């Protein structure tokens, strides 16, 4: 089983760097759908990802149709949008023989509306108070959703405890 965080035309290098760091810590593939709103050499992108870039499997896709051709099972593609009707906790992500794809829209406009209208059953959302904010931060949203996927997968082989380097917690 492989989990994928997929970013549609991301605009902000710091968000993408933070998401890459989450991908490194969760053994999640990062799929980037072009065009990107920044250069992959951007100093903010590198700073946000710190020294984890070599630990992230990144796949680049020329456009949305090119990415969709790589999805092994379209039933396991989830469109993360505040306009969805089902919560991100509703789907079952636990099948060990399946790959799961979490597709997030660009920071300013989300996913293309025609695409969303054709695929409403794939859309999931994080509940939020729309009266107070337009949307949650993209990197926070990615972290919330991927950790629900991992929770349902019993966190795969991720470490469940952290080793304190100075034995002070013994």
UniProtKB/TrEMBL annotation:
Keywords: Cytoplasm, Methyltransferase, S-adenosyl-L-methionine, Transferase, tRNA processing. InterPro entries: Alpha/beta_knot_MTases, SpoU_MeTrfase, TrmL, tRNA_m1G_MTases_N. The keyword Cytoplasm applies. Its EC number is 2.1.1.207. It catalyses: 5-carboxymethylaminomethyluridine(34) in tRNA(Leu) + S-adenosyl-L-methionine = 5-carboxymethylaminomethyl-2'-O-methyluridine(34) in tRNA(Leu) + S-adenosyl-L-homocysteine + H(+); cytidine(34) in tRNA + S-adenosyl-L-methionine = 2'-O-methylcytidine(34) in tRNA + S-adenosyl-L-homocysteine + H(+). Gene3D superfamilies: 3.40.1280.10. Residues 4-147 form the tRNA/rRNA methyltransferase SpoU type domain. It is found in: Cytoplasm. S-adenosyl-L-methionine binds at residues 80, 105, 126. Belongs to the class IV-like SAM-binding methyltransferase superfamily. RNA methyltransferase TrmH family. TrmL subfamily. Could methylate the ribose at the nucleotide 34 wobble position in tRNA. HAMAP family: tRNA_methyltr_TrmL (MF_01885). PANTHER family: TRNA (CYTIDINE(34)-2'-O)-METHYLTRANSFERASE. This is Putative tRNA (cytidine(34)-2'-O)-methyltransferase.
């Amino acid at each position: 089983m492989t989990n994928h965080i997929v970013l549609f035309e991301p605009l902000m290098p710091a968000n993408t760097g933070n998401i890459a760091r989450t991908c490194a810590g969760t053994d999640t593939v990062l799929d980037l759908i072009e065009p990107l709103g920044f250069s992959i050499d951007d100093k903010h992108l590198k700073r946000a990802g710190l020294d984890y870039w070599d630990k992230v499997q990144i796949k680049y896709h020329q456009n949305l149709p090119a990415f969709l051709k790589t999805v092994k099972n379209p039933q396991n593609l989830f469109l993360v949008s505040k306009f969805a009707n089902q919560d991100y906790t509703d789907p079952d992500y636990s099948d060990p023989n399946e790959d799961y794809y979490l597709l997030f829209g660009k920071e300013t406009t989300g996913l293309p509306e025609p695409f969303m209208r054709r695929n409403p059953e794939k859309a999931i959302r994080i509940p939020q108070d729309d009266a107070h904010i337009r949307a949650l931060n993209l990197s926070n949203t990615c972290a919330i959703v991927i950790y629900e996927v991992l929770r349902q997968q019993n966190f795969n082989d991720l470490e469940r405890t952290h080793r304190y380097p100075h034995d002070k917690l013994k």
